[in-house]
């Protein structure tokens, strides 16, 4: 574990240990979809995938997913065993996967699972926008890290981003829904292969998220919503700078056969 409190371990031994532990905790015979969350940049992705492939063959998992993987890592992983789902950040104000990763996933037949589809809660409403969202993170210290260091929620950046929120709020009224629903509907309309993960701990928010399925958007609507939040006008980064090394932009792994760093 490093100074950020996070660690990514994709070694075959650790992968198997984690899956065996998950099966025991859940008291199930198999897991439908198992993700390698983030990418271990010290371990060749082929090593991680080979172990996951064995676990599929043993019937302990059915499908394999990755998260925050680079295009190169996706290709190399998919060559070992088909990837079913790729979990990436994707929302109105985070769209950097659209140029290369989304087309690659569609070429390979990989489903896209956007996390933070509401921009870490930013588009969830005025109450959330006015304060930093208290989204659940692994530990209190990590939660504080996010609340303190996500620059999009700080100072002048937040003031600028509020203007973008107000634009989505106006569009939401046009469509007879909430700002959260229009933002989530925008993600849902990116394709039939897109299954967003809006997190919540409250029933009313769950109901609101489900309600976004009723929001129907035309191609013109999607463009209008996209244009309301120009990506070049979003101020700040979507994650703390000290955690950016865990993003897909830095997730290439050593070549197959390389010695794993310890």
TrEMBL record:
Name under which the protein is recorded: NADP-dependent oxidoreductase domain-containing protein
This protein's UniProt keywords: NADP, Oxidoreductase
UniProt cross-references to InterPro entries, sorted A to Z: Aldo-Keto_reductase, NAD(P)_OxRdtase_dom_sf, NADP_OxRdtase_dom
One GO MF term: oxidoreductase activity
Keyword NADP annotated: yes
Domain NADP-dependent oxidoreductase: 8-227
Pfam families: Aldo_ket_red (PF00248)
GO cellular-component term (any): cytoplasm
Entry keyword annotation includes NADP: yes
SUPFAM superfamilies xrefs: NAD(P)-linked oxidoreductase
Protein origin, superkingdom: Eukaryota
């Amino acid at each position: 574990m490093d100074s950020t409190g996070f660690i990514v371990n994709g070694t075959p031994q650790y992968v198997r240990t984690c899956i065996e532990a998950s099966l025991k905790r859940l008291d199930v015979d198999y897991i439908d979809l198992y993700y390698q969350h983030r990418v271990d940049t010290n371990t060749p992705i082929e090593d991680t995938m080979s172990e996951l492939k064995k676990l599929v063959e043993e019937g302990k998992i059915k499908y394999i997913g990755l998260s925050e993987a680079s295009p190169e890592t996706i290709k190399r992983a998919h060559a070992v065993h088909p990837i079913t789902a790729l979990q990436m950040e994707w929302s109105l104000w985070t769209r950097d996967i659209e140029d290369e990763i989304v087309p690659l996933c569609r070429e390979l037949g990989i489903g896209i699972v956007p996390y933070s589809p509401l921009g870490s809660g930013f588009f969830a409403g005025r109450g959330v926008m006015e304060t930093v969202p208290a989204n659940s993170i692994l530990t209190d210290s990590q939660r504080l890290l996010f609340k303190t260091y996500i620059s999009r929620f700080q100072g002048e950046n937040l003031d600028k981003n509020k203007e973008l929120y107000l634009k989505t709020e106006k569009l939401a009224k046009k469509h007879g829904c909430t700002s959260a629903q229009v933002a989530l509907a925008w993600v849902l309309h990116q394709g039939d292969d897109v299954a967003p993960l809006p997190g919540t701990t409250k029933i009313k928010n769950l109901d609101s998220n489900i309600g976004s399925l009723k929001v129907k958007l035309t191609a013109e609507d999607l463009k209008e919503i996209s244009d309301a939040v120009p990506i070049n006008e979003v101020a700040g980064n979507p994650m703390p700078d000290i955690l950016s090394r865990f993003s897909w932009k830095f997730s290439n792994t050593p070549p197959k056969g390389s010695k794993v760093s310890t």
